[in-house]
Design goal:
This protein has two domains: 3-140 and 305-362, D-Maltodextrin-Binding Protein, domain 2 (3-Layer(aba) Sandwich); 143-303 and 405-439, D-Maltodextrin-Binding Protein, domain 2 (3-Layer(aba) Sandwich), CATH 3.40.190.10. 43% of the residues lie in helices and 15% in strands. The protein is built from 17 helices and 15 strands. The chain is globular.
Length: 440
Amino acid sequence: MKGMEKVLCVLAVVGMSGGLLSACGTTGSSGSTTVTVWSWRSQDAPLWQKVQDALNKKGDNIKIQFRSIQATNYDSVLQTAMDGGQGPDIMYQRAGEGTEQYAAANMLKPLDKIVNFSNITNQSALEAAQYKGKTYGVPFAIQTMEVFYNTDIFKKYDLQPPKTWADFINICKVLKRHGVTPLEAMGIQGWMLALNFDEIGATFLGNKFTQQLVDKKVNYTNPAFVDALAHYQQLSAYFEPNFKAVGSAGNEQETNFALGKSAMVMDGIFDIPTIEQDNKNLHIGAFLIPPEKPSQQSRIDWYVDGNISMNNDIKNPQVEKAAEEVIKYVATTAFGQDFSDIAGEISPIKGVTISPKYPLSVQAYQWYQTRSISPVFGIRSPMDTPPPTPINSKKGNKSVNDTNGIFSAEQKVLLPLLTHQMTPKHAAQEIQKTVSWYFR
């Protein structure tokens, strides 16, 4: 490895948070080829060691250099590196809009002639990796959103998981009366507020309404959507008093829930390992947002997390070939099973099962199979993927400029909604204004 390549690869390993870092795919003196992989998921490091071992076992002399970047910084760090021609060989991409941005800028390699996608059985997951008829990434995870609760606190106050919204509010009232914070929330983290609202929307909107949204027969100012916003607003009375200032570190709601400072948290299955790491003795249960009436069905909100994509500008042919072998393997059942075994999350790859050692994930998967909202109406929905417009930056590198999707639109209005600075009707109008491009 040449001197400059060594320096750049060392920088990538230590995980600097900014600047232009080289895609360090190289051919080593031992004959191995190094392929760089960037991600916002530090928990996936063991997964990529397994990928390397599997490829080496079948005769590919490949070394994988995995770099995790803080999730809140990942998008900007990756964009800067890619704009400067210094990006990784393989990268995690946000599904839908995130992947489309890079595909439109010709920064990602089309994979249809390289990867066998027949194992990806979730059509929505595959569509979230496509742009103009080509596939630019391998979907790696389906995330679900639930209400997690401290079973010991529930037992102390003789509480049971709610069957109706009125039950849910009553639980919150009982807990608050006893000096227990009913629900954790991070007002600073708009993305989490939006995911939490989508939990409520999944149950209160239902499949028929969300299909009408996708078909443009109704829009976000519809009374049903306004009603879902109003139900979310009700919950703010049961957050901690300073919730609008919580979230500077990005994980306070998981930590506080883990330490027993609150009885419930609306969160994704992806955060359970973090919660359990903070308190290994915590007993956690889960339920879905309950409906208004017992005769109605609760539904689980879900979304395609991301795709694993390949850089379209790898200059070393040997590294490019090695990266292709890696990306081929990412679409196999073996990879999907290793992912689920390590992360405890749902893989969109056929034949993958959830290990019994993750009981909450097993439950989430059952709900996903039987009660999932379909189609989705928030993050990763068609309303969340405005057509990207490629532009040229001052340096001559391709980048993109795009309008906002529904997930961004929700983030703009939910804190004002929860702090009663905006009515549900006004919030719905603002959301509709932001995503008006979809309904034209």
